[in-house]
Structures are given as C-alpha cells and as structure tokens.
C-alpha cells in the first residue's frame, strides 16, 4: 500500500532518485508502479515545481529536485532510523542491512562467517555490495561500509576491524622452474606480474614495493589482468606470474604452503581496515547486530 503522507511521498521521491527510474523504485519499495508515479505527481503538485525531467528513456532530477534531495537526505535517513528503532523494540532482530566492501575484504572478513551469521540472525537479510570504490552511505542507501583507513566524512563513525595489512608477493614452484626467483627489487622488471584492474575506476593497480622507507612503482610485464582476488590466486597457483595477495588472505588458503613468498622485506603495508557507518545508525538492532558480529569475528586480527 502506498503511503500518501508527505513522508511517504518524499520516500518515493528519494528512492526514484537513487534507483534511476520509477519502476525500479517501485520494485524496491514493493509497491505498484502506478502508485509510485502517483505519489511523485502528488509531491510535485504540493511543491509546485517538477522534480524530474522525464523522457521515454530516462528520468533525471531537475535543479529543484536536486536541491530537495540534498536538503532532505539526512533528515529522511534519521526518520528511517527512528522508525526502525521503534519497530525493533522488544522484538526479534530483523530487517535488511546493506553493507559495501571490496572483494578482498569480503573474502577475508565475511565469507568465512556467512553461515554462522544467518544461523544466529535468521531474520536479518544481508545485502552485500562488492565495490572497490568509496560509497556514499546516505546517497547509496547503505548501512555499513568496510575499507582501508579511518579518514571519513563528518557524521561517520569508524571501528577498527584489522590492524595494518601487508601485501605479500608470491610465486609457485612452476613459476620458479621457468623464471627463477627475484632476489632484489631491481630483478622485478625481468619478471611477470598478475595484474589487477579496479572495477570502480577501471584503473590498473601499479606494482608497488617498499624500499628504504619509500613506496616505489615498478613496470612489469603483465600476461594476465583480472578484477577478482580468486582469479589472481588461481593465476599465481598456475605459475603465470607474481601474485600480490594480502597476508591475512593467504593464511586462509588451504594450500598456502604451495605459495613461495619473495622479497618479503619489501612488501607494501596498507593502513588498518575499518568498519564505518553513520552516527546513530547502530541504534537500530539489526545494524548493531552486524557491527558486533564483525567486531567479534575480527578480534584475532587486532
């Protein structure tokens, strides 16, 4: 049923803006498309100006629509949070929690524990978005994010999950037989690298090592490019090149003994990994449940 209150109309408006279409917003809100369209029409009549430019192919915010979205996002997020807190009061923890992180962090921090989480909280639906880039929690409708570093926007909270992380360099026995083992950073230019391309920026991650306290980029031949850590691991196993694998992730591999570490004193170090979220969002029981679960499961890394 459509909520034709001002709050309900703003909710439909913001969802259309986030999803990019009326039909997508209707699906997300679980209402009929005509109801979503009617709600938007009533809001535009109430305000007195159009909020979207509509064509047969797309829908875009007008200047008035952009201003309304910017001025009401935080207030609506606060209202959503207040409603959820009241709804969850005294009840079993339930609802959807949206969380974003890079693929490598999913493999390290969440993948091993998915079954246990859903056994403990069967009424919580996790919606996992794997993204190498940074997400705007309010604009993207996300509850929690995981990323390196704790430099966050105003109004955010950061909780450390993992201490500093080293990016290890590994090769296989088959690679050694064909190419040998690099003994110094200078040797790397004659070796092969498994390349990694970031999905969000489409940029290729350069090969960076540490030498005399400085990060140094090195040009290397790259026989294979991928955008997934699992593919990178497979290519390293099969001897296609040097693989860059975080040491914590390597420890989770059942065949880690088959990977040969090289140039260990030159491994690059990354800042700690943090869980971040909007202030007060942890008051919702479902969000607090996920926060506490992740903090508990990562205690060994801190």
TrEMBL record:
Any one GO molecular function term: DNA-binding transcription factor activity
Pfam families the record matches: HTH_1, LysR_substrate
PROSITE patterns assigned to the protein according to its UniProt record, in alphabetical order: HTH_LYSR (PS50931)
HTH lysR-type domain mapped to chain residues: 9-62
Keyword annotations: DNA-binding, Transcription, Transcription regulation
Family: Belongs to the LysR transcriptional regulatory family.
Protein's UniProt name: HTH-type transcriptional regulator PgrR
Source organism: Neisseria subflava
């Amino acid at each position: 049923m459509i909520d034709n209150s001002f709050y309900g109309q703003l909710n439909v408006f913001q969802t259309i803006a986030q999803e990019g279409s009326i039909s997508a917003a209707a699906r997300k809100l679980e209402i009929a498309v005509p109801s979503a369209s009617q709600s938007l029409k009533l809001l535009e009549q109430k305000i007195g100006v159009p909020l979207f430019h509509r064509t047969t192919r797309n829908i875009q915010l007008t200047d008035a629509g952009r201003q309304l979205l910017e001025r009401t996002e935080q207030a609506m997020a606060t209202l959503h949070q207040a409603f959820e807190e009241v709804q969850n009061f005294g009840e079993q923890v339930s609802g959807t929690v949206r969380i974003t992180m890079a693929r490598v962090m999913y493999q390290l921090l969440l993948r091993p524990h998915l079954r246990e989480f859903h056994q403990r909280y069967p009424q919580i639906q996790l919606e996992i978005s794997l993204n190498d880039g940074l997400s705007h929690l309010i604009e993207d409708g996300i509850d929690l994010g995981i990323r390196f570093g704790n430099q966050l926007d105003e109004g955010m909270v950061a909780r450390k999950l993992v201490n500093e992380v080293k990016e290890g360099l590994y090769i296989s026995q088959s690679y050694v037989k064909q190419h040998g083992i690099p003994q110094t950073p200078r040797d790397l230019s004659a070796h092969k690298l498994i390349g990694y391309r970031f999905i969000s920026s489409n940029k290729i991650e350069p090969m960076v090592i540490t030498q005399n306290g400085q990060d140094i980029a090195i040009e290397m031949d790259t026989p294979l490019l991928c955008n997934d850590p699992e593919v990178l691991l497979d290519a390293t196993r099969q001897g296609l090149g040097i693989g860059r694998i975080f040491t914590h992730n390597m420890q989770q591999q059942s065949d880690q003994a088959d990977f040969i570490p090289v140039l260990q004193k030159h491994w690059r170090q990354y800042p700690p990994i943090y869980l971040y979220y909007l202030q007060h969002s942890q008051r919702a029981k479902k969000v607090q449940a996920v926060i506490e679960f992740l903090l508990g499961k990562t205690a060994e890394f801190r």
